[in-house]
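## retry 2 of 3
previous attempt timed out at serialization; input unchanged, resubmitting
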Amino acid sequence: MLKVRQKSFRLAQVFTIARGSKTAADVVSVEISRDGRVGRGECVPYARYGETLASVQAEIEGLSYDIDRAALAAALPAGAARNAVDCALWDLESKIAGKRAWELAGLSAPGPEVTAYTLSLDTPEKMEAQARVNAARPLLKIKLGTPDDMPRLEAVRRGAPDAAIIVDANEGWSAEVYQDLAHHMVRLGVKMVEQPLPAGEDEMLAEIERPLPVCADESCHDRASLPDLKGKYDMVNIKLDKTGGLTEALALREAAIAEGYEIMIGCMVGTSLAMAPAVLVAQGAAVVDLDGPLLLAEDRNPPLSYDEAGVHPSTAALWG
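## retry succeeded, writing output
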């Protein structure tokens, strides 16, 4: 049996990026039942990629309940719908085999990974206040992506003078704005910038100076994306909602490393159920950004554990 549900989880506060704001994490959950066991997965449809809750649910409902991961990869394109089903199948296989998902994948036992904490796009004053509250966190991610971001950068650094900082422009800059800001980001100790230019309009990254590492997010979905990134990016952001699940995410990580890219593991704003499979991909990554549950006012039960060591692998009761 295959069940699909839409569910909304309240955020702790309004979350804003260059493309808009949200007050809840709207997710699609999948349950696949076989042999008295239930596998679960979750995805976050993303309008940037033409996805809605309804379209993703319809894609999933069109699948056979007895589909396997190999057939799934042929039945659905990389994206949110395939992610939820793929992760549910991993969870189901784990329960039927009586083994953890990392064992089935041939991975070493996972441990905690330090994760970034994201500061929502806002006025410089409010972003500085956000930074002060979270100044003790080891890694802060700043959402930017407007032509007027320099005061925001300065404000966050004032608010968190000792934290490592990464920046996500969400495709919001032009080449000129990026070139103007790049050396200021280096001066302020920014470690990496994510997707400064729009996907499909990022050719200039191969021609202009990149004084700090540049990470492909919207420009990188799965292994098929890699040829177009050459010479433009130094790092790739692997998100399960882009790759279409854990299966392709693991394959993309291996292929990207082989081609010399550093690895970032990211997420949409989802619950612990969505983050749990990504923790397996995050092992040893240069940057981990799996803070979705930290932004929620309500989460799955049981949730993932977060502490000073970072995000911990899930218990079997949650996933895998």
